Amino acid sequence: MAEKLVNGDSNTGSHSDAANDAFIETLPDDCVFIAGGGPVGLTLAVSLSYYGIKSLVLERNDTTTRWPKMDLTNARSTETFRKLGLVDSLREQGVPSHVPYRCTFCTGIRGKLITEWKFPSVDEWRKVIAEKNDGSQPLEPWQRLSQIIFEAWLKDICDKDPLIDLRFGWKVESAEERDEGIRATATDKNGNTHTFNARYGVGCDGASSRIRRSLGIPLIGGPAGLDTLSLFISNLVPSFPKMKMTPGPPTLTSLVDVSVDDKASDQAIFEIAGGNGEPYKLEIDNVLVRSTYRPNLVVATQFMGPKRHLFLAGDAVHQNIPTGGYGMNMGLADAFSIATKLAGVLHGYGGSHLLESYQQERWTVALLSVERAGYHLSVHQKLNEILAQNCKHLDADSEQGRNLRREIHEYYQKHDGENKDLGVEMAYIYHSKVIIPEDPSTEPKFNPRNYVPSTWPGIRAPHVYLQDGTAIFDLYGKHYTLVNFSTRADHGAKFLTTSAEERGVPLKHLELQEETNAREIWGKDLVLIRPDGHVGWRGDSISDMSSAIRIIKVVVGIQSVENGPSLDTDLEKEKQRKPFPGTKELFIQYPNFKVEKLGAFQQ
User: Fold this and answer.
1) Are both 69 and 193 inside the same structural domain?
2) 422 part of a folded domain
3) What total of structural domains would you count in the chain?
4) Do 536 and 483 share a structural domain?
5) Nearest residue to 530 via CA among 357, 369, 368, 360
């Protein structure tokens, strides 16, 4: 794939200086340089391969993660893996489909049950999806799966893919944009310095991203206001002989009112298990990993470099907290989004506005997810007020104790959106210069709780089963799809398909004239679906070829709509933004700013 230069032995015309162990690799134009081989970088490589694009992935660690950072691959992510043909394999790695999902609030392992959040199993949600065929549901339920298993599964897929050159133990040190591409430096396992030249590169290299720092891009946000101690234990089963273990181990979480830096691992575990009561001593055979860190809620001001050759995804541009499960899932959405845009450009049909739309679309969604995660955190922070004067009664078999537990139960049942806010995952609307807008006064109002089915330009089109039981998503083309419900003879779809063909744009014409239920849900006769499943344009007819040409040129980024959103972030305006929920301050973190108490797994 890459033209590798070792000791000057190459016919590419490049050179190396063996004296200082410098090696130069020039990647073909159709090969994307990826810094970071975590879940985001690996998903990006797999997504690019799906579109026939090669990639080189450099990951600083020798192995995939040991940290159980993520437990839930959300519905939007599983829809993406379905498109990639990987969702069944993904589910084979995770919690069995019949196992329900529970989040239990109690005063301690030997204490009292206060309340539960009860979520459906995959099988139960599938039944709801089948019965509620009104467009409000995702095509795929979520999947519980530890990130330890998730990353190893993805790495194995990448290792077997001839379009992916995956190198673990290689640390990317820096990168810069040039007029025609990028130049990056990295250190291999032996300490040799390598220089890479590529047309495009993507930094998926985590919270301390060297790519983001190289581009001089600051972060907006602040700390979540609490220190966190994470401990991963190899086996708790001897302490809980009746516990049935499934992939994705149960998690114990509690507030420990001490300095986490000074707390011994075993003592912290005993206090967490004891909850409101005395420490509960468990049989601990081995603490596999330990990390203290301070969670941050931050979003980068830019998701790409000024020359549009270097892009950023995942924690490199938005750092979240676990509440809501938006962090890694947002990164997966970033990866698939930029993959579709790079594929369009590298296949020759996409224009510069297509790449620019990545900034316009993903930045606002990142702000949305960070704000919502902070809101979920504030729900838990509110518990401190409830317990302020009553904590001593929490375990009591008294009227005061029962009333306090009832108050907490009612509070958490009222504020239970942490894993139920489907709107945050599926209902956001992109606004960019490659989406043909409609009258903004009639735009659907965003609802964080629910996805209200719509084909408004920029939104994810609704899932619906057709009359024969086929999911409409499964009939989409790999690239663009024109969904045609019209029974009129003059709908003009031919104008659009001809315009796409003349410009080399892969467009599938999906005719569904008999699908009245789907037509009612989708709301328009003609809907143009982008590779990422979002709507690029819709209407009931196309009147002439000139209109069709404009539609195609806009959605593939050759031409842009007028008065679209800005590509630049107004830092002075952002400084006036209110702190994200769950934080007490908001500031601009410049590239040389060192986040306090950055955990080992965040670096």
Assistant:
1) yes
2) no
3) 3
4) yes
5) 357
pLDDT at 231: 54
Tokens of 582: 């769950």
Q: Which two tokens stand for residue 314?
A: 């995942």
DSSP lists the bridge partners of residue 113 as 106
At residue 360, the pLDDT reads 96
Rounded Cα distance, 529 and 537, in Å: 8
Single-letter residue type at 203: G
| For residue 293, pLDDT beyond 50 | yes
What kind and span of H or E run contains 266? helix 265-274
The residue length of the chain stands at 603
Single pTM value for the model: 0.88
Q: Are 125 and 143 in contact (CB under 8 A)?
A: no
Six-digit token pair at 48? 């690019």
**What's the domain range around 536?**
435-555
* Unique residue bearing structure tokens 């040991």: 66
Tell me, what's the pLDDT at 226?
Answer: 65
Helix axes 326-346, 352-387, angle to 10 degrees: 180
Better-predicted residue by pLDDT, 288 or 492:
492
What confidence tens digit (pLDDT) does each residue in 491-517 have? Answer: 999 999 999 999 999 999 999 999 999
> For strand 296-300 and strand 318-319, is the pairing parallel, antiparallel, or unpaired?
antiparallel
**Token pair of 131 as six digits:** 């019965």
| Residue 395 DSSP SS3 | coil
* 405 in any annotated domain: no
- The predicted model gives 75-80 an average pLDDT of 98
**pLDDT (0 to 100) of residue 274:** 59
153: CB partners within 8 A, 6+ apart = 89, 90, 93
Same domain (yes/no): 64, 200:
yes
Residues 329, 445 within the same domain: no
Q: Mark whether 44 and 141 lie in a shared domain.
A: yes
pLDDT at 338: 99
Return all residues near 34 (Cβ < 8 A) that are at least 6 apart. Answer: 41, 44, 45, 55, 56, 57, 58, 201, 202, 204
Boundary (domain end) residue, out of 338, 357, 374? 374
Q: What is the pLDDT of residues 114-156, one digit of tens each?
A: 999 999 999 999 999 999 999 999 999 999 999 999 999 999 9
Q: Are residues 272 and 323 in the same domain?
A: no
Rounded CA separation 387/157 (Å): 48
Give 190: exposed, middle or buried? Use CB within 10 Å, 0-12, 13-18, 19+: exposed
Question: Please, which residues have CB within 8 angstroms of residue 132's CB and are 6 or more apart in sequence?
Answer: none
Whether residue 445 is contained in a domain is answered as yes
149: left (phi over 0), alpha (psi -120 to 50) or beta: alpha
Considering the domain boundaries, does residue 383 fall inside one? Answer: no
pLDDT band for position 591 (50/70/90)?
low
